[in-house]
Amino acid sequence: MAKLRGNAIVGQSGGPTAVINQSLVGVIETAAGMPEIETLLGARHGVKGILGENFVDLFKESKETLEAVANTPSSALGSVRKKPTRDECLQMFEVMKKHNVRYFFYIGGNDSAETAFITNQMAKESNYELRCFHVPKTIDNDLRVTDHCPGFGSAAKFVAQAFIGDNLDNRSLPGIKINIIMGRHAGFLTAASALAKDRSDDGPHLIYLPERPITREQFRDEVAEVYNRLGRCIIAVSEGIIDAAAEGHKTFTEVVMSEAAEIEKDTHGNIQLSGSGALGDWLANYLKRELGSTLRVRADTFGYLQRSFPGVVSSVDAAEARMCGRKAVEFATQGDVDGSVAMIRTESGAYGLDYICTALANVAKETRSLPDEFIAATGNYVTPAFIDYARPLVGTLPTVGYFEGMK
Amino acid sequence: MAKLRGNAIVGQSGGPTAVINQSLVGVIETAAGMPEIETLLGARHGVKGILGENFVDLFKESKETLEAVANTPSSALGSVRKKPTRDECLQMFEVMKKHNVRYFFYIGGNDSAETAFITNQMAKESNYELRCFHVPKTIDNDLRVTDHCPGFGSAAKFVAQAFIGDNLDNRSLPGIKINIIMGRHAGFLTAASALAKDRSDDGPHLIYLPERPITREQFRDEVAEVYNRLGRCIIAVSEGIIDAAAEGHKTFTEVVMSEAAEIEKDTHGNIQLSGSGALGDWLANYLKRELGSTLRVRADTFGYLQRSFPGVVSSVDAAEARMCGRKAVEFATQGDVDGSVAMIRTESGAYGLDYICTALANVAKETRSLPDEFIAATGNYVTPAFIDYARPLVGTLPTVGYFEGMK
User: Fold this and answer.
1) ipTM
2) What is the per-residue pLDDT across A85-123, written as a single tens digit (0 to 9) for each?
3) Could you give the residue numbers annotated as active site of A?
4) Which of chain B's residues have a Cβ under 8 Å away from the Cβ of A239?
5) Is A212 in contact with A379 (CB distance < 8 Å)?
6) What 3-state class would DSSP assign to A317?
7) What predicted TM-score, i.e. pTM, was given to this entire model?
8) Where do the domains of chain A lie, and which CATH numbers do they carry?
């Protein structure tokens, strides 16, 4: 079979990560060595750039530039939250035909896999040969098939380092501290806070995941128990925790916001109670109200810092993200194959990976949650199995020194 | 004159920093070499440890432990928010006499300098020879006399790195982004966000400082101007910004919270509107309400991450913090002298410092604000003079790579 020759498009989609540019550069450097790929067009802001034919010629970039971009967080081509409609996919497909595009690489989460999947199906229906490849990326770590997702390790490292520092801060000035962590539907990143724990009384002492609904009273009682025992309590809370007392699997934020909206209606909209800090602030105020207003309770919401903080990058994550980009190009140029790159952990003792190609349909649409075996029976912590899973992904964490006389 | 011989106490006070343990270890290693100091007692949780005679023998710690502690953020001895009353100072003084303490080193902000000052005066009144030394520490950078304060450089580095990442994030997914930064009365740390700016359209685009009161309408209009021009806007806001429309120099937070408290009264306390994220959330919601609800506006509050994040430390700050601890012991053992260590920038071209001893009264109580020459005439940015001042303090910042084709 003659090799498929033509141009290629690469794009980035969804929330940025610290290593999404590693994957992009992995695509560029590998494509540059493939005679099948004549030009590599970088689509600015993902599908928006394809629809608007807003491209950058990526083969014109120097090695030095590529290396500098690879080591820069966030999406160098620009990103987009847009999930194209079927009509827009058709338009994109027309643009691709017009530019003789034969390879399409899309770096992102499950929505990006779906975009690649739909575009791929349209090409098949039109008998237009187009290899479509999805390169996994998400700090939420919620894609199916792959053992973990590029971007997660670095975000997990940020979260773990933040908790190492916060635990020391809290030892120094004891109190109750709530930290709200990203991951609306999957608790992986919140769970990664447990990597900060070294000494038996280190925080986080409690971890609340979207996979385990709780009531506010349960939250209060569990915090009080730790506080009464240790004189302090550090709590990791996913932004997506579910209120077990509410009907219809609602998040705490939804419940609290709808209570607030009722009040807002009464006050003619003079106040706004939503916002990124609202969940943490609500929980902190709730604890003060229930456990005593003189308690030192404070909440921080890590926000965007988690996903594109320069200088806090897992070297393992960076290398794997790069390899995922490379493998996408290698797979795509090997024959009539489309798919998503997945990392499979090798069975042997030491940490290692195989990179495989899985069908786009396996990764598109649905996501996965933190598996049961990673969640403690109490529902408010992780298991040692999770630590074994996550530790190799974050690379080296800072070490902490204590006085011998205070141990 | 015979040298004063006896025991010494060292303590840490106030909010932790990334390098406060460098100062502590500077005190320990220098004191260990001084025949005048027989034992060095570490007071656990500052003045609380002195009052409760809760001490650690710091000469028993190994060199390896000292180095590990020096490189660990937060206060290794534990900290305290307590400012002792005059009666408690008297009690502390009695404890010191009982333990034959002749040297007292207190690492902290202006309150700590005042504690050292009062203790020193009591000793003088009782004709008890006691050398009292304050070692400067604060991420707020608001102590008088010294050019800058240990702890500020590392916090400034964290803030600058956060803005480098957030600027890239915002380039990738454009919108309006507000970041709330610590420093209730002094804008130094908020101003440090400007160190993130490299390219002419980089954020932060606006910087709001406690030194320049603004109205909410002014804030809205200035943000709208940037957003209309660039299609995005990143804003650094001090937690202590003052509402120019309110009487009595009230902070935005106070004004917004008192408006909310009125509403809370009406709703029988069923909601709580205060919290660490409240200012950012209020500003974000206000902009959405005023400029259009479909705008992508988001606020993050950096919170405690700014002050004790391990792995993001200015090497310059770390070395200077260490030196401040060393100098305190050197000054104290030189003769009948008490004071606070201050760093004075040398006049020559390259960055360099002289370490001097200034009177405790010069540092106690009052603090300083960001000087006028560091604030732009517009009131919503910093001057090049501030950048010249702050850049040497943060050490190296991560470099950012861009595609040539997108410049």
Assistant:
1) 0.96
2) 889 988 999 999 999 999 999 999 999 999 999 999 999
3) 140
4) none
5) yes
6) helix
7) 0.97
8) 6-138+312-363 (3.40.50.450), 152-310+371-406 (3.40.50.460)
